[in-house]
Design goal:
CATH topology of the largest domain: Spore Coat Polysaccharide Biosynthesis Protein SpsA, Chain A
Structural class: alpha/beta
Radius of gyration: 20 Å
Largest sheet: 10 strands, mixed
Order of helices and strands: EHEHEHEEHEEEEEEEEHHEHHHHHHH
Number of helices: 13
Length: 347
């Protein structure tokens, strides 16, 4: 197998507790043509000093502001000329042969823009990890889920999703990308700040005519949840805000009104459910999300224009990868909690 260069870019912010195990595992990788980089997002701990002293082969890129996940990787990827790049969280441990299957798949098909390894939970390697599992899916109304995790239900990994499969999106925790396509797509949208920015970028990959796959023979263990706790107000706010933002940007005019309208109805139902159950946090988060969207409507128009002028494919090619029913209805009303149950549904 040819061994094109792969840049592994570890994003770090005050991650001292993770760095040793992360970089030790990267050093044990069997793939030899690797460039290791760490982008430090203005840490105030000893992260940079630790890497300099213990991993001198790592190229360190220091930012003097913390501009978030998207800005960090957009800047970091400018520092490599490698054919492929891996956007890697600092709270991961990789298996020794994790890169070979990814490179082999990308080399076999130049229409692949991104690949995802199987992500298992670092604290219990028999379980899938919340952020990536075995590949990202999304329903046609803009609600993402995973092969191995739907909303808060996380499955055990029994090899049930070990098949290579074309997917809609790949997790940003360990995202293997063709570097030139990342640049062609304008990279990650820094307006997202937190959550769904990788889904948004993957959608653009599809609109440019590229494919995304999960390669489960590549395995990465991810701690996860280190940035924002799962039931926090911030997470709820970003998820609701960014889902609407993403749909508005990427859908063509034929699908925009219909799909946005249904998504809005789901969000209204969420508000009423929150009031009825006297759990106001999520309802307030939804209201704040829509306030931001209203206030920044001119920005939304600008972002939508950028994507629509960039696209080379109609929605048809991307939409065929979406789950054609509502994952919200399947999960909460039909009580289908497991991915294998959901994909078999006929109503």
């Amino acid at each position: 197998m040819l061994m094109p260069q792969v840049a592994v870019i570890v994003l770090n912010y005050n991650g001292m507790q993770f760095l040793e195990k992360c970089f030790n595992s990267l050093q044990e990788s069997k793939y030899s043509n690797v460039e290791l980089l760490m982008y430090d997002n203005f840490s105030n701990d000893d992260s940079v000093k630790f890497i300099k002293e213990n991993y001198p082969q790592v190229k360190i890129i220091q930012s003097f502001i913390n501009g978030g996940y998207s800005r960090a990787y957009n800047e970091a990827i400018k520092h490599t000329k490698a054919k492929y790049s891996v956007l890697l969280n600092n709270d991961v441990e990789v298996e020794p042969n994790w890169l070979e299957p990814l490179v082999e798949a990308a080399e076999a098909d130049d229409k692949i823009a991104a690949l995802q390894p199987k992500l298992i939970w670092l604290l219990d390697r028999k379980r899938f990890e919340y952020a990536g599992s075995s590949g990202g899916e999304m329903d046609k109304y803009g609600y993402p889920f995973l092969r191995g995790r739907i909303f808060s239900t996380i499955e055990f990994d029994n090899g049930q999703y070990d098949d290579v499969k074309e997917i809609f999106w790949a997790s940003g925790a360990a995202l293997f990308v063709r570097t030139e396509v990342f640049t062609q797509s304008i990279g990650l949208d820094e307006t997202f700040v937190h959550h769904m920015e990788e889904i948004d970028m993957c959608w653009r990959f599809h609109l440019l005519g590229y494919k995304i796959k999960v390669i489960p023979s590549s395995v990465v263990a991810h701690y996860g949840g280190a940035t924002i706790i799962s039931d926090s107000f911030k997470k709820m706010y970003w998820n609701h805000r960014n889902a609407m933002f993403m749909l508005f940007k990427n859908l063509d005019h034929n699908d925009l009104v219909k799909i946005l309208s249904i998504h809005i109805l789901f969000d209204i139902a969420t508000i009423f459910h929150s009031i009825f159950n006297l759990t106001f946090k999520r309802g307030i988060a939804v209201i704040y999300a829509y306030m931001w969207l209203f206030i920044n409507f001119k920005l939304l128009i600008q972002k939508r224009s950028e994507v629509q002028h960039m696209r080379k494919e109609s929605d048809g090619s991307a939409m065929k990868l979406l789950f054609q029913k509502s994952i919200v209805i399947q999960y909460f009303l039909r009580k289908k909690k497991i991915y294998s149950e959901v994909i078999k549904t006929t109503y």
